[in-house]
Each structure stands twice: as C-alpha cells, then as structure tokens.
Amino acid sequence: MLANIKKYALEITVFFLGALRLLVSAWLPLLDKTEARYAEIARIMYDTGNWVTPQIDYGVPFWAKPPMSTWISAFSYQIFGVNEFAARLPSFLLQVFLIVFVAKALDFTKKQTYWFALVLFTIPEYYIHCGVVSTDSSLLVGITLIMVGFWNSLKENYNQRAWKFVTWVGVAIGMLAKGPIVLVLTVPPIFVWSCLYKGQLVAFFKKAFWLPGMMIAFVISFTWYYWAEVRTPGFIDYFFVGEHYKRFFESGWKGDKYGFAKQQPMGMIWVFLLLFSLPWIQFVIAKGIKKKNELIKDKWGTYLWFWMLWTPLFFTISKSLIHTYTLPSMIPLGLLVMHYFENYQKQKAWFIGAMVVPVLVFIGFIGMNTFYTDTNWQNTDKHLLKEMTHKEVTDCYAWEFKSYSSQFYTSGKIKVIDTAEELGDLMKQEDPFYILSRNSHYKNMPDVFKEQLTLVGTNKKSQLFIYNP
C-alpha cells in the first residue's frame, strides 16, 4: 500500500489540494465587500430571472462589469441552491478547465498535466481564485484561450483554422467577463513578440482570421452590449469611458457608482506579483537570468515572458488596483516553470517550499473548526444574522448602510433606513423588527431610539439589535 501511495503521490497531492479548496469554499462565509457583492448580484439575477442586466440591488443596474461571472454563478444556484459553495464552485471549475485545456493544447503527457496542476495549485493567487466569486476567473479563461490559441495557430502541424477560432472565442469570453481589458492584456504582448521574429508579424496581420473572428466575437459578446444599453441607457458610456479609462488614469476618480477605488502606491502591482506567486516567481526569475543569453532563441519561452510580464507592466502606473489584477500572469508563470524544469524529481525542494501555503490553509481549516469557534475575524454579517432567532420577528432593517453579505444572507429582504424620521415612523407602528448597524454608523442614531433597542449580537464591524415594544 505504501508503495502505491508513493507511486501516486503526485496525483494524490493534486486531488487533495483540489478537495481542500472545495471544503474551504463550502465552509467560509461570503466575505464583504467584493465577493459578497458578486454573489448577491448573481442571486438577484437568479431570483428575478433577468439574465440581461446584472443588478446590485433590486431595480438598480450594475454597470461596472459584464455578466459572464454572474451568469455562471446564477446557473450554479439553479443546480445547487443559493449558498456559498454554489457561488464559488464555477471559479473552481474554470480553473480546473484551464489546467486541462492548456495541458491538452500543449500536448502534455498525463504526468506533466499533474505537475502543471500542482504548480498552479501552489501559486497563492491561482489557488485563491479556485474558490472565490469574482470576474477575474472568467477573464483568465478568455486571456488563456487567446494566448494559447494564437500560439497554436502558428504551428504548421496543427489545425490552424480551429485554433484561430479558439482565439476569437477567447476574445468574446473576455469581453463578456470584464470588457475590452481582455484585448489590452493580450494584443500588445502578441504584437511585440511577433515583431521579434521574422515572419511572425506577417502571420499576426495576415493569418489572424480577422473578419470571421470579429464576426464570432460580435455574435457571442457584442449583442449583449447592445441589449444592455437598450435595457439601461447610459451603460456604454459609463462602462467604456468610466470603468476602462477614468478608473485607471484619473487619480481620485469620483464617478465610481459602486464604491471607492482601491488606492495603492504606484508600482504596487509588482509587489503583488512577487508576493502572490511565491515561490515560483523566484524560480523562473533565477532560470531566466541563468538562460538570458538563450532567451531570444527560445520563441516559446520569450512568448511566455511577454505574456507574464505585460499585465504588471501595464498596471505599473495605475494606483487603482488590487492583488487580483495579477491573475492573468499566473498561467504563463506556471508554463514557464514547466518550460524550465529539466527533471521534475530534482525539483523537490521547490515543491516543498511551494506547499507552504496549501499546508497553512489545511492547518488553519482544521484549527478553526476544532479549536477556534470565534467568527468575529470574518468580514461578514452571516453569523450575526443567525442571531435572529425570534421566528415571529420577520422584518430586518439596516441603519444607514447594508452590507452585501447582509443582503445575500437575508435573500435581499433587508431594507435600509436612512433617516431618524424613518426609524421613528417605523417604531410608531409598534411591530417588532431587527436592525443591523455598522459601528461607524451607530453613532449617528439618536439616543432616544438607541434606548428602545436591545442588543442581540456583535461582530468586529456591526451590531444587531431587536426592537420589541
């Protein structure tokens, strides 16, 4: 038995890491703000049946992102019900799909496929996105189809027309996932790489399947943009001008409808890349330096370097970003690791180091479930809302502000009370209700109303009260 375990240690490790990520996805509540927001948008789509316009609240369109990630989460709700696991499962499936797709496209052996999976599962940024609700996983699918499709379309012994088709399907998926940023993150590295090699630039312009490809992208994605503008006029201007120009190039942009952009020091994207791709980024940098004199002769290696480095280079001058913006670099990083491996068995030290993050996740998961039951560290209102144990009290309100997790875990029933007058009128009806308040907003509530409320529970950001006259 021990011999079999040793023989299949690689496969067992990969499946263990996948199962662990699914367990954490099912156990961890949806966290504010980003993840709970996208899960709630998908829940509203599932609840209303409006598959054209994503909504951030009932009747309030969400213009910041196209609907690809919302569609797949809403579809998952239809199969598995509305819960955290169903919201996150599509991201896991997309990441697994990418592993299989890339391995098949590049003719990996079965063993190489498992090594590739292990490398990606031990890249923190990639592993994180195997279990979060976000638009980035869908975008990564589009980017990967474009980059791998274009590379294979240049090979003489491949079905070039089919791979050109794959490339343009990637464009369509990317447009539906996050918009034209998919072209910004793929066309420049392809073009610059093509300029380096004789004949490749001609192939870029003459063999890119331009007219049929654009028709494919139009049929798949641009029709949605048309209907989105018809349903909610103003979407096109906000999405293309606001979200894709002003957000990144106007510091302190005030037009954001859905929260303040994350302000970071210029160049922070490189710090994110180094931190969230440990230790494999060090491995490929070391190998790249060692083989620098051979790099220009290595078309595939050069292609991967351009692919990996272009995203952080593009976002270098942007101050409005988060660590998830480095995700497009993770597939080429994994492929560079595979490219530079001379012998997998001799890289045990790197794999042992790479297993640190998954092992810590496993230890944390066991520890949190066994010895540490305090949930106040979690940025969610789920546990607080569980304190609403009076079955006869069905109404729930939020004072001045409602979190996305409170919307999700009350199935959208929580309502905001903006003014003291509204709260006073509600109390005059003498019907019991729960009211949730952020600690930062509670000070704005008049003392005369505070005296009539009974504290039910607290977490690190909020308090739950009951009014029971």
UniProtKB/TrEMBL annotation:
How does the record say this protein sits in the membrane? Answer: Multi-pass membrane protein
Q: Which residues form the ArnT-like N-terminal domain?
A: 32-239
Question: GO annotations under biological process?
Answer: lipopolysaccharide biosynthetic process; protein O-linked glycosylation; response to iron(III) ion
> What GO molecular function annotations does the UniProt record carry, in alphabetical order?
mannosyltransferase activity; pentosyltransferase activity
Q: What is its main location?
A: membrane
* Keyword terms: Cell membrane, Glycosyltransferase, Membrane, Transferase, Transmembrane, Transmembrane helix
Where's it found, cell-wise? Answer: Cell membrane
Record-annotated membrane-spanning stretches: 12-30, 85-106, 126-151, 171-196, 208-227, 267-288, 300-318, 349-372
Q: Which domain of life is it from?
A: Bacteria
Query: Per the record, GO CC terms?
Result: plasma membrane
Would the keyword Transmembrane helix turn up in this protein's UniProt record?
yes
This one is known as: ArnT-like N-terminal domain-containing protein
